[in-house]
C-alpha cells in the first residue's frame, strides 16, 4: 500500500504538491469558475488518484480502481463533516459558545447531466467531463489531463544566460505547452519572502512567452516567475506557477564562446551535420582541494561552482545549434537535471553512459528533427577486452605483461556507441562514438590498448547493425598529435617500436604491432595548438575523427583566440566553464 501511495504521490501534478525550496507553486481559485478535479487512472494500475481543492486545503485521494464510487463520495462527505466539527470546536474554545452538530454535505457525481450510480467502480465512474458536486461547489473532472510531474527552475539565474526549467509532462507534449515569464516589481529577493509572498497580484511584469527565457540586465536583482500550462494539442491541464528562489545576478560579460556563435547562429542545412565534442569538466573533479589549490588556483572559487558553470555550458551549447553533441565528464545529476531539460528545449534528445565506479560519464545528444535513435552499443573497454572473443588476440598479447594487464583492467574507461538514422533520408545511418581515454601522462600504452578495443568493437557494430554507415568518433583521447593513438587512427597502424608502448617504464612495456580495423580516419578539426589549457599544461587532447570517403569538412568553427583563453591566465575561468575547449565542425554527409 505504501509503495503504491508513494508512486502515485510522485506522479501528482506539482502544482498540487507542497512547494520545494527550489520552486514555489500555487493554484488560484477564480470566482465564478468551476473548480478542477484531476483524476489519474491508467489501465493495469490497481489505484487511481483524485486531487482537488477542498476549502483551503488540497486533497489527494488514493483509491482502488474497482472500489464502488459510493465509498469515495462518503469519504469526501465525512471529511467535510470532520473539518466542520474541528472548526466549531475551535470557535467554542474562543467564544465559549456551544457547537452545533455538522450536517453531512451533499456529495454527488454527475456525467452528462445524470447522477452516476454509487455502485459503479471508480475506474468507470470518474470519466473526463464528469462533474463532482460537493455542497455548493462543483468540480469539472479532468481524467488523465496533461500534467506536469516535474517542474523546477534552476537555482542560479544570470543575465544573458538561458533559464531552462526542468519540465516533465504526463499525458501531454512539452511542444504544446504554454509559458509566460514574469519579473517582480520589487527587489525583495530573500528565500523567506519568496515562500511567504510567491505571487502578489500586480507585483509582476510579463517579460517572455517562450519555454526558455534569457534575462536581460534590466532583470538583475529581481526574481522571475514562470506560469506554465501543460497541454496536449488543444487539451489543457492544471497550470503551474514557479517562482525563482533567488534573484537574477549579473553575468560575466563576454564569454570565450560568444565570438564562436557568430559562425553557428543557424542550424546547419541538410546534408550538413554540425558536430560538437566537449569535455565539460565534471563537478566531482572541479570541487576537490587539488583542483582549487593545485590544478586551477588561478580560477575564482565561485567560477568553479557547478551552478555558475552550468549557466555558461548551457549557453555555449545552445549557441552552437549542433546536430550531434558528444560530451565527456558529465555528472549524472548534471545530465538529468540540467543538460537534458536545457537541450531538449533546443530540440535535442540525449543518452548517457555512466562510467563504472564513478559519478560521471559520457553523454551524446542528437537533433530529434534530423535523427532517430536506432540502437546503443556501449561497453566498458576493460570488460570487453576480457570477455568478448573479438579481442582475444589483443588480450593474449597484453597478457604477456601482467603489470600492464592489471593496470588496464583497473580502468573503468567506457565507450559510448550510438547508431542514428537520418530522418531526411530514411535508411541512412551514422555510428557516433564517444569516449574519454585514460588520463595519466605516462599512460600511452594503456590508451593504445583501449583504442584497439574501441576500434574493433566499432567495426563489429557497424558491420552487424549498420553496414556502410560512416563513423564519427569524438572524445577526449588524452593523446597529443604525435601519440600512438592518433597515429593508429590516422595511419591505421602503430609499430611495436613506438615509444608509447614503453610510456610507463620497462616493467609495463608491451611491444606489439597494432592495426586499425578502419581505413585512415581524418581529424575533422585538424590539430589545434591546444584544446586543453591549464596552468601547468596546454596541448591538443580532443578530436573529432571522421571517414573522409563518407564525410567532408565543410567548416571548422575557430577556437577562441589565445588572448581570450589567457585573459584570466588559463582555463577554467569566469568566462569559460571547463579546462577544455569545445571542438565544433560542420560535416557534409555525402548523399
From TrEMBL:
Any matching Pfam family: Exo_endo_phos
Annotated signal peptide: none
Endonuclease/exonuclease/phosphatase domain segment(s): 277-580
Superkingdom assignment: Eukaryota
Domain 2',5'-phosphodiesterase 12-like N-terminal, residue spans: 146-249
Stretches for region Disordered: 83-102
Ranges of biased composition (kind: Basic residues): 83-92
PANTHER family membership: 2',5'-PHOSPHODIESTERASE 12, CARBON CATABOLITE REPRESSOR PROTEIN 4
Protein name: Endonuclease/exonuclease/phosphatase domain-containing protein
Amino acid at each position: 500500500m505504501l509503495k503504491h501511495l508513494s508512486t502515485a504521490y510522485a506522479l501528482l501534478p506539482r502544482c498540487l504538491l507542497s512547494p520545494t525550496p527550489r520552486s514555489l507553486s500555487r493554484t488560484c481559485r477564480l470566482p465564478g469558475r468551476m473548480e478542477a478535479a484531476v483524476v489519474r487512472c491508467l489501465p493495469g494500475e490497481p489505484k487511481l488518484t483524485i486531487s482537488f481543492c477542498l476549502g483551503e486545503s488540497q486533497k489527494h485521494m488514493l483509491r482502488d480502481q474497482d472500489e464502488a464510487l459510493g465509498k469515495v463520495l462518503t469519504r469526501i462527505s465525512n471529511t467535510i463533516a470532520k473539518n466542520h466539527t474541528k472548526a466549531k470546536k475551535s470557535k467554542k474554545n474562543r467564544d465559549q459558545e456551544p457547537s452545533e452538530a455538522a450536517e453531512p454535505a451533499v456529495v454527488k457525481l454527475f456525467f452528462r447531466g445524470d447522477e452516476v450510480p454509487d455502485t459503479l467502480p471508480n475506474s468507470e465512474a470518474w470519466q473526463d467531463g464528469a462533474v463532482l458536486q460537493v455542497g455548493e461547489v462543483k468540480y469539472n473532472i479532468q481524467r488523465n489531463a496533461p500534467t506536469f510531474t516535474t517542474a523546477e527552475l534552476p537555482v542560479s539565474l544570470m543575465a544573458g544566460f538561458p533559464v531552462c526549467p526542468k519540465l516533465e509532462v504526463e499525458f501531454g507534449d512539452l511542444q504544446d505547452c504554454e509559458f509566460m515569464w514574469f519579473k517582480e516589481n520589487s527587489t525583495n529577493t530573500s528565500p523567506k519572502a519568496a515562500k511567504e509572498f510567491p505571487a502578489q497580484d500586480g507585483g509582476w511584469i510579463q517579460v517572455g512567452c517562450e519555454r526558455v527565457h534569457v534575462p536581460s540586465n534590466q532583470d538583475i536583482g529581481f526574481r522571475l516567475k514562470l506560469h506554465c500550462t501543460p497541454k496536449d494539442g488543444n487539451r489543457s491541464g492544471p497550470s503551474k506557477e514557479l517562482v525563482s528562489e533567488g534573484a537574477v545576478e549579473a553575468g560575466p560579460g563576454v564569454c570565450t564562446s560568444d565570438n564562436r556563435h557568430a559562425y553557428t547562429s543557424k542550424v546547419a542545412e541538410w546534408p550538413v551535420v554540425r558536430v560538437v565534442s566537449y569535455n565539460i569538466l565534471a563537478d566531482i573533479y572541479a570541487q576537490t582541494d587539488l583542483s582549487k589549490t593545485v590544478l586551477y588556483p588561478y580560477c575564482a572559487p565561485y567560477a568553479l561552482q557547478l551552478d555558475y558553470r552550468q549557466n555558461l555550458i548551457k549557453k555555449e551549447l545552445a549557441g552552437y545549434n549542433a546536430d550531434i553533441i558528444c560530451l565527456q565528464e558529465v555528472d549524472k545529476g548534471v545530465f538529468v537535471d540540467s543538460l537534458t531539460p536545457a537541450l531538449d528545449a533546443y530540440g535535442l534528445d540525449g543518452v548517457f553512459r555512466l562510467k563504472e565506479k564513478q559519478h560521471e560519464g559520457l553523454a551524446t545528444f542528437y537533433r530529434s528533427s534530423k535523427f532517430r535513435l536506432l540502437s546503443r552499443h556501449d561497453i566498458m573497454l576493460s570488460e570487453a577486452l576480457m570477455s568478448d572473443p573479438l579481442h582475444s588476440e589483443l588480450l593474449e598479447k597484453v597478457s604477456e605483461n601482467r603489470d600492464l594487464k592489471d593496470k588496464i583492467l583497473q580502468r573503468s574507461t567506457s565507450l559510448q556507441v550510438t547508431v542514428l538514422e537520418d530522418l531526411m533520408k530514411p535508411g541512412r545511418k551514422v555510428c557516433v562514438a564517444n569516449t574519454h581515454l585514460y588520463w595519466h601522462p605516462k599512460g600511452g600504452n594503456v590508451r593504445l590498448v583501449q583504442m584497439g578495443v574501441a576500434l574493433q568493437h566499432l567495426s563489429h557494430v557497424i558491420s552487424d547493425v549498420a553496414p556502410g554507415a560512416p563513423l564519427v568518433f569524438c572524445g577526449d583521447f588524452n593523446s597529443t598529435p604525435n601519440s600512438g593513438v592518433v597515429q593508429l587512427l590516422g595511419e591505421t597502424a602503430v609499430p611495436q617500436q613506438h615509444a608509447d608502448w614503453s610510456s610507463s617504464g620497462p616493467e609495463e612495456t608491451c611491444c606489439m604491432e597494432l592495426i586499425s580495423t578502419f581505413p585512415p580516419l581524418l581529424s575533422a578539426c585538424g590539430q589545434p595548438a591546444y584544446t586543453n589549457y591549464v596552468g601547468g599544461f596546454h596541448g591538443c587532447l580532443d578530436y573529432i575523427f571522421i571517414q573522409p570517403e563518407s564525410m567532408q569538412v565543410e567548416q571548422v568553427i575557430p577556437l577562441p583566440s589565445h588572448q581570450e583563453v589567457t585573459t584570466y591566465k588559463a582555463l577554467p575561468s569566469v568566462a569559460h566553464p571547463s579546462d577544455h575547449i569545445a571542438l565544433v565542425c560542420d560535416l557534409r554527409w555525402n548523399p
